[in-house]
Amino acid sequence: MKVKPTPSPVFPTSDQIIELASKLGRTLTMEQAQGLNQYLDLLLQWNQRMNLVGPGDWKKILGDLVADSWLLADFLKNLPLPDAPRTVDLGAGAGLPGLPLRLFWPPGTYHLVEIRRKRTAFLLQAVAAMRLNRTVVQPEHAEKALPTLAPLDLCLSRAFLPWPRLLELVRPWLAPHGLVLIMANEPPPEPLPAPWLLQAMYSYPSGSKTRYFWSLAAAVISR
């Protein structure tokens, strides 16, 4: 039985990215479109060799995954964060939401924590190609990286751990007014486990589903 070769990916142009983003309700600058172009090109190339984001063309990736990043950027701009926050992204994987996010939300330092060697190599190449400032790849386990990066103003991750375990892991390393950002497919439960308080929430449609951002703060931070 002859195995069909994997078709080569179709790479977008910056103008095509601008056009599709406009249809999705987002106006991009040329600089942002060029950064996304670099990211999508690399992601499609690497995705042929390893499963970074699953099957899908650039249009699906932009609409299903990258769009989360620009919506998250808008959400973060309204949170009570310092002017130059220290942010950690745990289990950064394919760089979602972090790498596109930095095109739309560049303040402070952003640390992409990822222990898997091949994914770390992808992240390093993408950060360089996209020319992202103050964006650092940390090739370490989260448990080792967090103490060295503390105190953290913001911690987020996408499917790194179930959110109750994530909160337990990061709480000792947050700054006194630090926040944890949860990306979820459901609204936050009521009540949240002590000492966590819902600071803000945003929901948005994604295909047939609704996605949510939760911003959580600890009422009391103990060391």
Task: Quickly describe the structure.
The chain is of the alpha/beta class and 223 residues long. Helices cover 38% and strands 23% of the residues.
Task: Explain the overall architecture.
The chain is an alpha/beta fold and 223 residues long. 38% of the residues lie in helices and 23% in strands. Strands 3-2-1-4-5-7-6 form a 7-stranded mixed β-sheet, with helices on both faces. α2 runs antiparallel to α4 and α3 crosses α4.
Write the layout of secondary structure elements.
Elements: H1 14-23, H2 30-47, H3 58-77, E1 86-90, H4 98-104, E2 109-113, H5 117-130, E3 135-138, H6 142-149, E4 152-157, H7 163-170, E5 174-184, E6 196-206, E7 209-218
Parallel strand pairs: 1-2, 1-4, 2-3, 4-5
Antiparallel strand pairs: 5-7, 6-7
Helix pairs in contact: 1-2, 2-4, 2-5, 3-4
What are the salient characteristics of this protein?
single chain; 223 residues; alpha/beta; Rossmann fold; 7-stranded mixed β-sheet; 38% helix; globular
What is the terminal-to-terminal distance?
62 Å
Helix and strand content put the structural class at alpha/beta
Number of beta-strand segments: 7
Question: Which fold does the CATH topology of the domain at 67-218 refer to?
Answer: Rossmann fold
| Quaternary structure type | single chain
Number of helical stretches of at least 4 residues: 7
> What is the mean predicted local confidence, pLDDT?
93
Which H/E pattern describes the elements? HHHEHEHEHEHEEE
CATH architecture of the domain at 67-218: 3-Layer(aba) Sandwich
The CATH class of the domain at 67-218 turns out to be Alpha Beta
Residue windows where pLDDT falls under 50 for at least 5 positions: none
- Give the CATH H-level superfamily of the domain at 67-218: Vaccinia Virus protein VP39
Shape: globular
